Amino acid sequence: MDTSLDCMPCFMKMAVNEAKLACPDDPTLQHEIVKAWGSEIASLDLNQPPPAIARHLARLVRRMTGCGDLYAADKKEANAWVMSLMPELRERLAAETADPEGDPLGIALELSIIGNYIDRGVELEFDLEGELGAVARSVSPAALAAFKRQAVSGAMVLILGDNTGEIVLDTLLVEELKRRGCAVTYAVRSVPVINDATMDDARAVGMTNLCPVVESGVDTPGTVLERCTPEFLDRMREADVILAKGQGNFEALSGRWPGIFCALKVKCPRVAAETGLQVGSSAFCHMNSDGAAHD
């Protein structure tokens, strides 16, 4: 998925937000960062996906301020907040498991998608606790059925993680997949970028106790294939099922890796048009042979 003109306002808002985070008491430097970004983005190749463009902004802010992880405090708060909600969510899944007509995997997937709201790269109002409490079967039945056909006992499932907070809810999904007999591996970013989860976050929320956790090599808020390590690309090729979490992964992999499943909250009109869903919807789609999304 390339970067369109519609993406430009978001990138400028990101520059303003990150400038304020990096140097809150220096408005002059904030202005310099935003001006420098305006100049740099004009020269970038917009045939790249948005997460590849976002890498350049993160690098620019680091270079001009020396600040390497702008969202460190935010990430810890998001993880702690969602972890405080887990007892009630586990009760919900236990009830689903006990119900003969229940669908614990489907509900765990929907909970993990709701967690994708926690994205500091996109300004979107949401009621996380309200949606988690009212979780319902809203994703594509066809895509979910296809996922279940592939995520069977013995299948190697690779989950491409996205944001902090969200990774806490992903532990529920990992647990359900393991109950089905799947061999699950969870992937995180290799470098702090926006509020995306890294290995430190995986340890903090207990993901490393559930399944193998690996770094993809990327320094982008999405699995941009050109930024992955060769070893991680091999891991992707070897997986029986790949589940890409979040809009950044959808943007980076749409049209690039046929057969993957993408699970995300739709956060902008561009992705709404790509998925055929409204902004704020939960999306679960299966990429066909040419990499395009379908139910």
Folded structure, characterized:
With 295 residues, this protein is of the alpha/beta class. Helices cover 50% and strands 11% of the residues. A 7-stranded mixed sheet has the order 3-2-1-4-5-6-7, with helices on both faces. Strand 4 (241-245), helix 12 (247-253) and strand 5 (261-265) form a beta-alpha-beta unit. Helix 5 (104-114) runs antiparallel to helix 8. The longest helix is centred in the first third of the chain and has 27 residues, at 72-98. The chain is globular and about 60 Å long. The model has no long low-confidence stretch (mean pLDDT 92). It comes from Pseudodesulfovibrio portus. This is Damage-control phosphatase ARMT1-like metal-binding domain-containing protein. Residues 4-281 form the Damage-control phosphatase ARMT1-like metal-binding domain.
Write the layout of secondary structure elements.
Layout: H1 8-22, H2 27-41, H3 50-65, H4 72-98, H5 104-114, H6 128-133, H7 141-150, E1 156-160, H8 166-179, E2 183-188, H9 199-204, H10 207-210, E3 213-215, H11 230-238, E4 241-245, H12 247-253, E5 261-265, H13 269-275, E6 282-287, E7 293-294
Parallel strand pairs: 1-2, 1-4, 2-3, 4-5
Antiparallel strand pairs: 5-6, 6-7
Helix pairs in contact: 1-2, 1-3, 2-3, 4-8, 5-8
Unreliable residue stretches: none
* Total DSSP E strands: 7
Q: What is the CATH topology classification name of the largest domain?
A: Rossmann fold
Report strand %: 5-15%
Radius of gyration: 18 Å
Spatially, the strands of the biggest sheet line up as 3-2-1-4-5-6-7
